[in-house]
Amino acid sequence: MTPKAMKLNDETMQDTTPSMPTPPIASNATIGANVDIQIAPARPIGLGAMDVDDHGINIGVLRCRRCDSRLVSPGRGLLTDLSAAVAGVPFLPGPDPGMDVQRYKWWWKLRGTNDFDGIGVSRPIDTEHGAVRFIMCGDCQEMPIGYMLDISTNAWLACERVVQQNKDLANDAEDFQLPPGIDINYLKQLMKSQAERKAKMGEYSITFEEKRLGMVLADVEDGPGVEVVAFTEHEGKPGPAEVSEQIKPGDRIIKVQDLNTEGMDYTQVLTLIVNAPRPITIHFERDANNKAIVAPRRQHEEWVPNGP
């Protein structure tokens, strides 16, 4: 599927703010032979619960149905009816082996992985709706409980796959305690080292309207991360990245839109940039020791997302 078609799919997923105490009724959208699963009116606690405030935001804590780990804290998920997303009805493989694909009506929409307290994300999987990353519990790997599209930073959790707990019963001390065997002094030293490193790094962001940005990315040779190594020209003209006069070779990409790129290689980051709708905001960091002045320039070569 082309990025343009995938973008259309994403745009059809419109938010509807539910009234209290019962979520809004879905429109009668035709979705073919697969009928979306209907769930009961608002339930304050339990599996599939949809307890929201006047703005449609979760009131309770969203937890893993298997191990009870905290997935999302109150005030982060927007209850969304995706039954009208005819061009690409959200789906998930069955939660148990042998179960067929299941389609759901009600989803929690989150702005990105930073809105979660503990999840894991799969590698991109090619589907009829484009490249999809499935979301799992970060502790017990229960999956899939949700998904992300490579063209968007939004994350979606199926209401029927998670448990909502009354926020008054949640215990932050228990949910966020250190794992067994972790030395608190070592952790403090690690946090101090990270803070010192961040103090030496300058962070900035640039928003681009153009599709072709004109910069070459590569994996950092001496550590994790993805960095800019050169600029490209097209028909003899420099690209927007070079024209901005802000980016230097050696600057690392740390976020695309609101999606943290930690743990991604350069092909994943580049695919994310190419597929993302415009305008796109890219966040960079620069080592204080980066003295690069003149950036090498190469001839532009078209990148094929998810290609070899």
Automatic annotation (TrEMBL):
<dbReference type="GO" id="GO:0007264">
    <property type="term" value="P:small GTPase-mediated signal transduction"/>
</dbReference>
<dbReference type="Pfam" id="PF00595">
    <property type="entry name" value="PDZ"/>
</dbReference>
<dbReference type="GO" id="GO:0015031">
    <property type="term" value="P:protein transport"/>
</dbReference>
<keyword id="KW-0813">Transport</keyword>
<keyword id="KW-0653">Protein transport</keyword>
<dbReference type="InterPro" id="IPR001478">
    <property type="entry name" value="PDZ"/>
</dbReference>
<dbReference type="GO" id="GO:0008270">
    <property type="term" value="F:zinc ion binding"/>
</dbReference>
<dbReference type="GO" id="GO:0005085">
    <property type="term" value="F:guanyl-nucleotide exchange factor activity"/>
</dbReference>
<feature type="domain" description="PDZ">
    <location>
        <begin position="203"/>
        <end position="288"/>
    </location>
</feature>
<dbReference type="InterPro" id="IPR036034">
    <property type="entry name" value="PDZ_sf"/>
</dbReference>
<dbReference type="Pfam" id="PF04421">
    <property type="entry name" value="Mss4"/>
</dbReference>
<protein>
    <recommendedName>
        <fullName>PDZ domain-containing protein</fullName>
    </recommendedName>
</protein>
<dbReference type="InterPro" id="IPR011057">
    <property type="entry name" value="Mss4-like_sf"/>
</dbReference>
<feature type="region of interest" description="Disordered">
    <location>
        <begin position="1"/>
        <end position="24"/>
    </location>
</feature>
<dbReference type="GO" id="GO:0006892">
    <property type="term" value="P:post-Golgi vesicle-mediated transport"/>
</dbReference>
<dbReference type="InterPro" id="IPR007515">
    <property type="entry name" value="Mss4"/>
</dbReference>
<dbReference type="GO" id="GO:0005829">
    <property type="term" value="C:cytosol"/>
</dbReference>
<feature type="compositionally biased region" description="Polar residues">
    <location>
        <begin position="14"/>
        <end position="24"/>
    </location>
</feature>
<keyword id="KW-0344">Guanine-nucleotide releasing factor</keyword>
<dbReference type="InterPro" id="IPR011323">
    <property type="entry name" value="Mss4/transl-control_tumour"/>
</dbReference>
<dbReference type="GO" id="GO:0016020">
    <property type="term" value="C:membrane"/>
</dbReference>
